[in-house]
Amino acid sequence: MNRIIAFFIVFLLVSNSYAQKDSLQLGDRYAEDQIYASITYAQFNDLPSTVTKSSFSYAISTGFLKDFILTKKGNVSFAVGVGYGFDFFNHELKVSEINNTTLFDNATNVSSNVFKAHNLEFPLEFRWRTSNAKKYDFWRIYTGIKFLYNLSNTFQFTENDIDYKYKNVSAYRKLQYGLTFSAGYTEFNAYLFYGLTPIFENSKINGEDINATIIKFGLIFYIL
Asked: Measured between alpha carbons, how far is residue 224 from residues 9, 21, 115, 193, 198 in Å?
C-alpha cells in the first residue's frame, strides 16, 4: 500500500510538471521542478596514514528539487530539495563499540569489513542552464551544498571467523555536509559530492586524528 501511495505521488508531481510546460509560451517564467536520482562511486578521503583506501564502494540517492527562478529568461535559478541516500563502503578501518565508546583499528586481520549508512538529504543548488520555456533539451551546470542527516549507520566485519556488527556507533557524525557539482546535457549529467565534515567526531587511531570525509563521483539524472 505504501509503495502504491508513493508511486501515485510521484506520478502527480511528474504530470503536473509536464502540464506546466505545455501551458507556457516562449519568454514566460518557468521552473525546473525535478526528481533527481544519482549513482556514484564512493571513497573515504583523508584517511589516517596507517589505513589504506577503500575497495569498491558506492552510493545511491533520490529525491525532489523545487526550482525558484532568479531571472526573467529563466536560465538562472535556485533550488531546494529533500531526498534519501544510501552509502555502502568496503573499507580498511575497523570500527567497533564497547560501552558507548567507539574504537578504531587497522583492519589487517579482518576478512570482511563494510559500512552502511542511510541518510536524509537536503540539497541546495545554484543553477545555470541553456533552456527556455519550450526547450527541453539543454546544457546545465548546477552547483551547491548538500546537508546529510544520518538515520542509521552500521559497521560490520569478520575476524577469526567471527562476525561483528555495530549499529549507530556513538562517534559517527549525525549531521554532515559537502559541496556538489553537476554538469551535462538533458537527463545525463556528471556528478561530484565533496564532503567537508569528517564522518567521525573526536576520534583517533594510534594517536592520529581520524579526519576522513567522503567523496562521491558518478552520474545524476534529473527527471522533469
From this structure: 14, 10, 33, 22, 34
CA atoms within 13 A on the CB side of 78: 3
Q: What is the reported pTM?
A: 0.83
- pLDDT tens series, the chain, 224 aa: 544 444 434 443 444 444 344 444 544 566 777 899 999 999 998 888 778 777 889 999 999 999 998 888 888 999 999 999 999 999 888 888 888 888 888 777 788 889 999 999 999 999 998 876 666 678 899 999 999 999 999 999 998 888 889 999 999 999 999 999 999 988 789 999 999 999 999 888 888 888 999 999 999 998 87
Burial per residue of 142-161, b for 16 or more beta-carbon CB atoms within 10 angstroms, e otherwise:
bebebebebeebbbbbebee
Name the one residue in this structure whose C-alpha cell is 551546470. 141
